[in-house]
Amino acid sequence: MVLYLHDIPLEKAQSAFYSELENHHLAARLGVEEVPLDEHALGRVLAEPIWAKISSPHYHASAMDGFAVRSGETIGALPGKPITLTLTDQAVYVDTGDPLPDWADAVVPIELVEPVGGNDPRHPDAIRLRASLTPWSHIRPLGEDIVATQLVLAAGHVLRPVDLGALASSGSQTLLVARKPRVAILPTGTELVPMGTVLRKGDIVESNSIVLAGQILDWGAEPHRLEITPDDFNLLCNRIQQAADTHDLVLVNAGSSAGSEDFTARIVEKTGKLLVHGVAVRPGHPVILGMIRRSDQNSWVPVVGVPGYPVSAALTGEIFVKPLIAIWLGKTPDQPEEITAHLTRKITSPPGDDDFVRVVVGRVGERMLAAPLNRGAGTITSLVRADGITMIPRGVQGYDAGQPVQVRLYRSQDQIRRTIFAIGSHDMTLDLLASALESRGRRLVSANVGSQGGLVAIRRGETHMAGCHLLDPDSGVYNLAAVKEYLPEMDVKIVRWVQRQQGLIVARGNPKDIHGLEDLEKPGVSFVNRQRGAGTRVLLDFQLKQLGIDAASILGYEREEFTHLAVAAAIASGRADCGMGIAAAAEALDLDFIPLYHEDYDLVMPREFFDSGFLDPIFDLMADVNFRQSIAVMAGYDVSLMGTVIL
Amino acid sequence: MVLYLHDIPLEKAQSAFYSELENHHLAARLGVEEVPLDEHALGRVLAEPIWAKISSPHYHASAMDGFAVRSGETIGALPGKPITLTLTDQAVYVDTGDPLPDWADAVVPIELVEPVGGNDPRHPDAIRLRASLTPWSHIRPLGEDIVATQLVLAAGHVLRPVDLGALASSGSQTLLVARKPRVAILPTGTELVPMGTVLRKGDIVESNSIVLAGQILDWGAEPHRLEITPDDFNLLCNRIQQAADTHDLVLVNAGSSAGSEDFTARIVEKTGKLLVHGVAVRPGHPVILGMIRRSDQNSWVPVVGVPGYPVSAALTGEIFVKPLIAIWLGKTPDQPEEITAHLTRKITSPPGDDDFVRVVVGRVGERMLAAPLNRGAGTITSLVRADGITMIPRGVQGYDAGQPVQVRLYRSQDQIRRTIFAIGSHDMTLDLLASALESRGRRLVSANVGSQGGLVAIRRGETHMAGCHLLDPDSGVYNLAAVKEYLPEMDVKIVRWVQRQQGLIVARGNPKDIHGLEDLEKPGVSFVNRQRGAGTRVLLDFQLKQLGIDAASILGYEREEFTHLAVAAAIASGRADCGMGIAAAAEALDLDFIPLYHEDYDLVMPREFFDSGFLDPIFDLMADVNFRQSIAVMAGYDVSLMGTVIL
Prior knowledge:
The structure is a homodimer.
Chain A: H1 10-23, E1 32-36, E2 50-51, E3 61-62, E4 66-69, E5 83-86, E6 91-94, E7 106-109, E8 114-116, E9 126-129, E10 139-140, E11 151-153, H2 161-169, E12 174-178, E13 182-187, E14 192-193, E15 204-205, H3 208-218, E16 222-225, H4 233-246, E17 249-253, H5 264-271, E18 272-277, E19 281-282, E20 288-293, E21 300-306, H6 310-329, E22 338-343, E23 347-348, E24 354-364, E25 367-372, H7 380-385, E26 388-392, E27 398-399, E28 404-409, H8 413-417, E29 419-424, H9 429-438, E30 443-448, H10 450-459, E31 466-468, H11 480-486, E32 492-506, E33 527-530, H12 535-547, E34 560-561, H13 564-572, E35 578-582, H14 583-588, E36 592-606, H15 607-612, H16 616-622, H17 625-632, E37 637-638
Parallel strand pairs in A: 13-16, 13-17, 14-15, 17-21, 19-24, 22-25, 29-30, 33-34, 33-35
Antiparallel strand pairs in A: 1-12, 2-11, 3-10, 4-6, 4-7, 5-9, 8-9, 18-20, 20-21, 22-28, 23-27, 24-25, 24-26, 26-28, 31-36, 32-35, 32-36, 32-37
Helix pairs in contact in A: 3-6
């Protein structure tokens, strides 16, 4: 059955793939190998059940330091009527773990006997007992822990440190474990260049193969990253054939789409069997599943065409490669933890696809929240920032904000519990804060929704704190009025973070000769703006109004970016001539800066989090001289009031 | 401050250790090293924050296959009034990911244009558009994902596969990571022998060093297992000094107690500083914490004296070594998941110690249960079987059955969810079942409490099923009467597992010439019994009564073992001459067997689990010819009725 050129449902794709694997006896453990029993066996999968070869203890062992005796000879001993046993015919000293003499059937602890004669309490001439012993007292009998022939560990078990000890104690020396599947990763594409290349426009640093190799290592198999192959049909044919001849699985990345230089599907068709071309999952639908015939003509090797966008590539690994490796190792695949969390915003979804959405997860008060990340398949940062993934199934067009969804976690719940949400205005010093918090047991997750958006998030109980710099035009004071307006009923605290310089970011050398907001109206000057709700936007609009400048007369006023760095990047790349932002963003990208205003950037926190101790590592840092200094050296920052409680 | 010879509280021991480490500047990251950015960097800990060196994309990239154009030239295009742009001065074909020409500021997707002239739709003479484009449409602008200078990952971050991709894409090629601490593990003890040695009485297979090495690998450091050193003061001194000279941490296992050959504390005192000798934790209290001066006289190395019992050794690693390695790597130590579970039985605890109790955890119906494991420090199987650990703090004398306790999990919650509890009678075929279930997505945890104990566990809602073989003396029928008696109100099902032979297990060659229960009264014949409530015990007592034999006349009648194998082991080791049990146990230990009775061994299951599908893998196995055969070949088993629903 060949299914290609248009997307088919995930289950149908998987069943086509697995039934073909079964035809070739490739849907079971691949093979076994013998490894020494040492710490390097950690994580390997047992290929056979391990039955104890020896018992533990393998002899009757004394459980105490004391004297081995015959219990029968102690009968009748009483506090007022001791019995004396002579060494060494009636009693022998034994340390804990020593074997019991054949004639003995009990041990009396050394602290319960009275030594008679001799200088060493361990070697008296005789001992006196004032209580009788029952047979087998203070003895760890042979097999107490493990009896030879007993099951120690089942086949399919993944070895942990303690397992190694039990296996050694029960007589194993080597272990039969599943052979690690050999997985070839073949990066293809004329545009790909290796790390470290001086980049020209159009070059893409080849990075997917490292991610795939890391996944494969994590999942217990052996990755082999092959060299980058340009889009050349015959060369690709040869390389794929070579990879198939020497591996158990071939991943071709990318060329899996239907473009003019997407050869993978044609090559699979030519050298083997194309089973699936296109799966109705998002991101990642141009997946190829097939089989390649080895040069020996007798055996077949599965091949997966992995889409090129990094988010798609990683997801394809999780969906198609991880379960196959588990089958080949003979283990139950680990299911990630699942939790229920509430979406912080609406998400829409194409009704035809199983739509995988990466989310950041955090507990804010009593609510577990899932904040959807940027959904572009090319957005590498969404992979790094993701705490988990949720799936919107086919037939569903999306979910509203507040909807509870099941999230498969990428991080431990402990890490989630340590997460501080900072939803609000963007400031570059939050990156420094995130970095410093990592070693203080907290993880900072910030989402840039602007100052107003942050206050809304606080109102909805969706963030632990919000960066905020909203000027009150009447008083000239920052944040107090806005907090009263947006959070009239809430008990919140405002803590000064930094004072910072706002101004115009312009290209190096200021070629358009811009010196103030008045110059934005000059012909030929293009502007890049911040989004509505951002404090910088509020400040701009306020100042334009003061100056009587009509926003409609500014070219690019409607073009919105979400961070200071994005504004700076637009200017650095020539997409705009200037934008409003902070000095540090200009400095970071080596641009010029025209300082115009000072503003207060504060952290707004609901009282419950301010009081709870959860945010204490942030307060510790605000008081830390080194941390303050690391911010003060950045252009345009004043930290003298950092940590002052404003409200 | 030297604290030794008697146990001190855990926190006091830790603070003495860490303040001394701080004195020597050893309570922080040890050092850094540069490693290549590839899959082998997985799990390493970043030593510095990583800021993006290049933006991603690092140029304005087309987000679609289509034509790069000037948006200004499309103004006015309407469905009825197309605009025509000529190639290549007004439009140029671009693939997804291609750089935008300098003069262009928008891309129109290929499916939205009408080609004019030419044979290749990608290279027509001109294109016709019927809609205008806004600037920057269908473009991924420079820095859309990552802007150079932005934080990619914080210091202290533990690298995952996706992180490697983001680091490569943002311009890293090598990474500065924390150096792995070098940890020496020195096994000491004249009784220790390496794996594979032919064992004599008193020999102990050295296995702790493998467990410790595995733990240390897992925790991100580099273990070095040194050779076994006998109990020789001077030799040990030299070996410990050598280890200290070449490592960051020395673990001496064992010799940490106060016995005549326990030299570790004295050596630490001689070659450095003894800080702590004895910590009030159970198991594992004879812990030594100290510092050794290196031969260069300038630097110091921490040393931990690890107790010899395997359970104590593993716990000492978790409590003292794991957090130190995390500090040395500069990362937040992973906190294991914690859950609340209800104790299945009462546990008592010495009030002076922090008492760590290993438990098996499972969900039975709606209840999460924790069954305490055998608490002997020497019980290796308790390490392997443990799903988690709970701590009874100092000052508490124990907990009652049903008490909710916090359990730190060693396994994922997914594994816990897949656990089938089988509390009840012991049969050796349950080991085979456990082994076969491992590859079927279930984990069988069995506790041997006897048939009656199993029915009680069902009544209490503490098990998914119970092995049961209780003879009704009136009807001669197994289990039906007992289930009615013990579970009168419950809806349970009874499924036939096996029929098996019960009889007397005797030494090879039957030296005491035993042929039936009558012979148990013979002088010189010693018996080993099963515990009260065991089906085998019920059968024995019934048959003794039938024969008019007085239990008091049987030597060893009061000596109880909990499994068939334990009974067989008692006979194999000469501790008893005979015991009642199943043929397979005699066969396993190469003993003789006198068959006496056939009995029905059934699985009793509450209706809710019988119906739920959770136990389906067991039903699948009961119908599996290979599985049935693997049982039928064992001595004394009949599987012909396996899977028959009795009730």
